[in-house]
Hints:
331 residues, two-stranded antiparallel sheet, 75% helix
Amino acid sequence: MTQVVEQAPRPQAVAVLSQERLRSFSQGIAPFLFLILISAVLSAVSEHFLTVGNILTILLQISVVGILAVGQTMVLITAGVDLSVGGIVGLSGVVSALLISSLGLSLGLALPIAVVVGLLCGLINGLLITGLNMPPFIATLGMMGVTRGLAQVLTGGIAVYDLPASFGWLGNARLLGLPVPVLFLIAAAIVVGIVLRKTPLGRYTYAIGSNLEAARMSGVNVARQLVKVYMISGGLAGLAGVILASRTTVGSPTGGEGYELDAIAACVIGGTSLFGGVGSVLGSVVGAALMGLIRNGCNLLNVSTFWQLIVVGVIIWIAVAWDQYRRKRAW
């Protein structure tokens, strides 16, 4: 009987694997450490920061951008980008407001219809990218213009104000002690996090971003998976649009302006690579929280909004520079 001797792994291979794990761990833990550091500093300089009311306010303020960042994470992992999410926020908010004010539908019916609008926008994005080989930047930039224009056409450029007070429940009510938008953010993060880590779509998403041609040669239907990813991003943007409109009880055609950049910034700060293949939902939510903490702290300290923009911009520079450094070391 032949005895099979299991060969021990080479020391060099073990060392490389350990370095990769350490690098991955450090990249994932960095946003959390920065979050703790910023929280400690703000707690020391402002007695109003570490209060239940202020923490809930921060969570409420980051909920919409956080939901967008959850969807944007999947797109960035594929080495793409979705610039249309801000426009979808405005369009879906207007659609939900018009369905309620003009047709008398309930919030329970208007919400899924608005989400479907976002899904359709994501579907078109995905088909343009995979069917016509458009760069994601161009396809989603065009969709940004289309959604902004449709929102203006539907409202005549005038915000929808005649909405019942019940419409504000989604954006302002609390359940289990937390604002409802925060619960939606938590639910979206959990679901998409499971999709990324536990399903074939998640594995294909990372594979496409790491090496598109290798994924295709391995039998992955790249076009189908990319369409799914952009639909998820669009659907979450549709949800975020209704929440934003509900918070203000106004369907504004300009709602969500600039939110696409905030979502991308949250992802990058949270460790998602602009070059694809790397990222996590939890990191992106932490990135959104970091941006919320910084802005809230600046408000508590009476720092001008102009300086807030500068601080966030510098943090984005640092995050991208770190990603570049990490990539060079991996090479």
